[in-house]
Design brief:
Blueprint (H helix, E strand, L loop, with lengths): L1 E5 L6 H10 L3 E5 L10 H4 L9 E4 L2 E4 L1 H11 L13 H25 L13 H12 L12 H15 L7 H11 L2 H16 L1
Helix pairs in contact: 1-3, 1-6, 1-8, 3-6, 4-5, 4-6, 6-7
The structure holds glutathione.
The site of glutathione (GSH) has 11 residues, from loops.
């Protein structure tokens, strides 16, 4: 069975959202970040970065949200969350899966920290370039790959929630409406309930 290492109030809640979308049984293992459990040798042996999420399935250890989305999307094809190899939609799907970590995350940190960078040298360009590309990508919604909800929406949706909540992303209708669509999904609602239950028990 898939085992997910996670913590409330962290990016790992998006992996719960994904597992709830899939609907297969899985086990959740809480990592208490406030108690520093992520830095203990037992957890570092799973993720040497000391970050959540991490997913374990048999001998496979999957770290990084994007890798988890890719792994689970391919492992549970019946859930229909990952376009098949050879399907042209897979190109769009891969682009947005990678865009979240490669472009959105650094753009947020630049916006948050006010770094000066050279647009042509930074892999993400700059925040305005990233946000314009994201806006264009969402123009033909309802989902980032068009009509079909995929694991790329878990990555992009998770990023949009985070950016809106912490003020790194402008509240343009294209972003807020997309966040509303993601937030209305039963699996997303369930992931927030699981987070609230864990917080209450801590
Ligand atoms: N690159 C990682 C980032 C995950 C991440 O940032 N996790 C944070 C919580 S949001 C974390 O585990 N922080 C604990 C720490 O660094 O001590 C991924 O995409 O999975």
């Amino acid at each position: 069975m898939v085992k997910l290492y996670w913590a409330p109030h962290s990016r790992s809640v998006t992996s719960i959202w994904l597992l709830e979308e899939i609907g297969a049984p899985y086990e959740r293992v809480l990592v208490d970040l406030r108690a520093g459990e992520q830095d203990k040798p037992e957890y570092r042996a799973i993720n040497s970065m000391g970050k959540v999420p991490a997913l374990v399935e048999g001998d496979a250890v999957v770290c990084e949200q994007g890798a988890i989305c890719t792994w689970l999307g391919d492992r549970f094809p019946e859930a229909g969350l990952a376009p098949a190899i050879g399907d042209p939609l897979r190109a769009t799907w891969l682009r947005w899966l990678f865009f979240a970590g490669n472009c959105i995350e650094p753009a947020y940190m630049q916006k948050f920290s006010g770094w000066e960078t050279v647009k042509s040298r930074a892999a993400w360009g700059d925040p305005d370039t990233v946000y314009a590309a994201l806006e264009k990508g969402l123009e033909h919604g309802p989902w980032i790959c068009g009509e079909r909800f995929t694991t790329a929406d878990i990555m992009i949706g998770g990023g949009v929630f985070y950016g809106l909540a912490f003020g790194m992303l402008d509240k343009r209708p294209v972003f807020t409406e997309y966040a509303e669509r993601c937030g209305a999904r039963p699996a997303f609602i369930r992931s927030r309930e699981i987070e609230a239950e864990a917080l209450a028990a801590m």
